[in-house]
Design brief:
By secondary structure, this protein is an alpha+beta fold. Helix content is 37%, strand content 25%. It starts with 7 loop residues before the first helix and ends with a strand.
């Protein structure tokens, strides 16, 4: 069966309870959230200034907290798999070594967002973070954390509200403090996600076109292989041949992504699904970032009548697949994958959700 996705109300309640436990006698005053994402098609094209077609997920990161002017900023994460310590304490008055990257690694995302926040100076604050976005699954838990924290900071000290520059600031945070030279897609869709829509993003111009994806007979199945692979030993071919195959994938993937958006607008799900499968095969053969686990999940899904298409999503070498299918075959599809796949996958049944937003605390 598919994993139950915690509701936003449940996550806010969990975060608020932890806040009260961590800071006895205090109650959080402000809250914000931002979603993870799944990319339907357009992989390894965003940092090549190409096209992508992601959607925001109901899996979100929630930040609750309160201003505490004059005090240190105290950040706490409730994420079970975060590296220790899960509580960090640093000063905003001196943006020196305390905001430099270091341990624990998760705090680097927070430090980076504070560093690149576009309305300085910030007051001191206390905050708690909880998330339903799986770590390391290719669903952009990092961008979800960055954007949620930026949205939280906007309530402490409002910036000019420019959403594109907000996404860019969060991308810069990942570059400078997490050491990941990511493209703009993850932060962009976490900020600008729209319920019932995927987003066709031109990563060069940053132009965004909402693509309706609200057919009640259609769902998106995310299958997490729960496997991580190393990049080592995968690039041993002659350099010129490698560059050719990588470039060919990017060029063809850009064409696929633009065509896929048009098919989705027309409800041409079979044609859209075929492009998903072509994308996966290209990622496997030309970009060489798939693995037997992801290939097995895709093959198993495609054997079920009512599945339109399936592909790996995210960086590769493990993580998740994304599958477009008819809603009434979801249970049959999950059962078939479990029977055919030799592993312990987890499943999330999703539809396109809203981007980052402020939350009301009761």
């Amino acid at each position: 069966m598919a994993s139950q996705i915690p509701s936003l109300v449940e996550l806010v309640s969990e975060a608020s309870s932890l806040y009260k436990q961590t800071f006895p006698g205090e109650t959080p005053q402000i809250a914000a959230c931002a979603p993870g994402r799944v990319n339907l098609i357009g992989e390894h094209t965003d940092y090549n200034q190409g096209y992508v077609l992601p959607m925001a997920l109901p899996l979100v990161t929630v930040v609750v907290g309160s201003p505490s002017p004059g005090d240190d900023a105290i950040i706490v994460t409730a994420t079970e798999h975060a590296d220790e310590p899960r509580r960090v304490n640093f000063s905003l008055a001196n943006k020196g070594p305390t905001l430099s990257p270091g341990a624990p690694y998760w705090a680097n995302y927070v430090k980076g967002v504070i560093h690149h926040y576009r309305a300085q100076p910030l007051p001191g604050f206390k905050a708690v973070v909880v998330s339903s976005v799986p770590l390391g699954g290719g669903l952009s838990s990092s961008a979800s954390l960055e954007v949620a924290f930026y949205t939280f900071l906007q309530q402490l000290r409002p910036d000019d509200g420019d959403k594109i520059l907000k996404a860019v600031a969060c991308q810069q945070a990942e570059h400078t403090h997490a050491g990941v030279p990511c493209g703009i897609m993850d932060q962009f869709v976490s900020v600008l996600g729209k319920e019932g829509h995927a987003l066709l993003i031109d990563c060069r111009s940053l132009e965004t076109i909402p693509v309706p994806l609200a057919d009640p007979d259609l769902v998106i199945l995310i299958t997490n292989s729960n496997v991580k692979h190393s990049l080592a030993s995968r690039f041993r071919d002659k350099l010129d041949d490698v560059i050719y195959r990588r470039a060919r994938h990017v060029i063809e993937e850009n064409h696929r992504t633009v065509k896929a958006a048009e098919f989705l607008k027309r409800g041409a799900y079979h044609e859209f699904g075929q492009l998903m499968l072509e994308s996966h095969n290209s990622l496997r053969d030309l970009y060489e970032v798939s693995c037997k686990d992801l290939d097995g999940l895709v093959s198993a899904a495609m054997e079920v009548n009512g599945v339109f298409g399936s592909r790996m999503t995210g960086g590769g070498f493990g993580g998740c697949t994304v599958t477009l299918l008819k809603a009434h075959v979801i249970d049959r599809t999950i059962q078939h994958i479990q029977e055919r796949y030799h592993g312990t996958p987890t499943f999330f049944v999703t539809t396109p959700s809203e981007g980052a937003r402020n939350l009301q605390l009761s």
